[in-house]
Amino acid sequence: GDSVTQMEGPVTLSEEAFLTINCTYTATGYPSLFWYVQYPGEGLQLLLKATKADDKGSNKGFEATYRKETTSFHLEKGSVQVSDSAVYFCALSESGGSNYKLTFGKGTLLTVNP
Amino acid sequence: GAGVSQTPSNKVTEKGKYVELRCDPISGHTALYWYRQSLGQGPEFLIYFQGTGAADDSGLPNDRFFAVRPEGSVSTLKIQRTERGDSAVYLCASSKGGSSYNSPLHFGNGTRLTVT
Fold first, then answer.
1. Which of A105, B36, B54, B97 makes the best surface tag, with the fewest CB within 10 Å?
2. Who wins on pLDDT, B100 or A58?
């Protein structure tokens, strides 16, 4: 079945550091790919998404590019802030009849120190 | 506007007891989802409603778990004869329906269930 593998956490960075959180996936067909974020005390919310090869999703300074050749969707940000401290989840959905269903990775806890 | 509301936020119950977890979706959202997040894991799909009917309940782990959405709005997840392994955060989400790409899911804060 479909699966998502995320970089093990936790990740601790200083403010303004560069962030990469790795994500690879296994799926049949052409899944859509997502990053969701969970800030402390809040529900999961969509951060960015991409639906086909070489698409780049971006939001709030975060970016991720859909790489079909390496089955990856790594999350990057050039300069993190303390307010980016959260748990980040990579996820996919199938392209077929079950495209409403998300398969998540285990999540990566990011802590940004001032 | 109001987001997805889940009650209670925390529930502690004894092994063998029955529990109900409630979800109030965003008004106008026809699709509703339940996910379960165990410690150290990502959310796992349980069930999907489109309107009043369960369109996909393939993620329910066994017949102790059941969910309803009688009027196409509020949903209740019901767990019978709870076991310690049921301890997890139960997440509810809603959307306008269709693919998760075109209709992003909006998640509630979850109900943390602890079975002692």
1. B97
2. A58
Residue A9 confidence (pLDDT) above 90: no
User: CA-based angle A67:A68:A72, to the nearest 5?
Assistant: 50
Q: How far is CA A31 from the centre of its chain?
A: 14
Main-chain phi, psi angles of A84, to 5 degrees: -85, -5
Q: Which residues from A are below 8 Å from B when comparing CB atoms? A: 4, 6, 32, 34, 41-46, 49, 51, 89, 91, 93, 98-107
Task: Name chain A contacts of B44, Cβ cutoff 8 Å.
Answer: 104
CA dist list (Å): A54 to A64, A68, A108, B38: 10, 8, 24, 33
Residue linked to tokens 């509301």: B5
CA A60-A49-A105 angle, 5° bins = 100
Give CA angle at A62 (A58, A66), nearest 5°: 55
Chain B, nearest residue to A10 by Cα: B40
Q: Give the Cβ contact number of residue B15 at 10 Å.
A: 12
- Please enumerate, as own/partner, the contacts of B66-74 that have beta carbons within 8 Å and a separation of 24 or more: B67/B34, B69/B32, B72/B30, B73/B24, B73/B25, B73/B27, B74/B22, B74/B23, B74/B24, B74/B25
What percentage of chain A has pLDDT greater than the value 90? Answer: 87
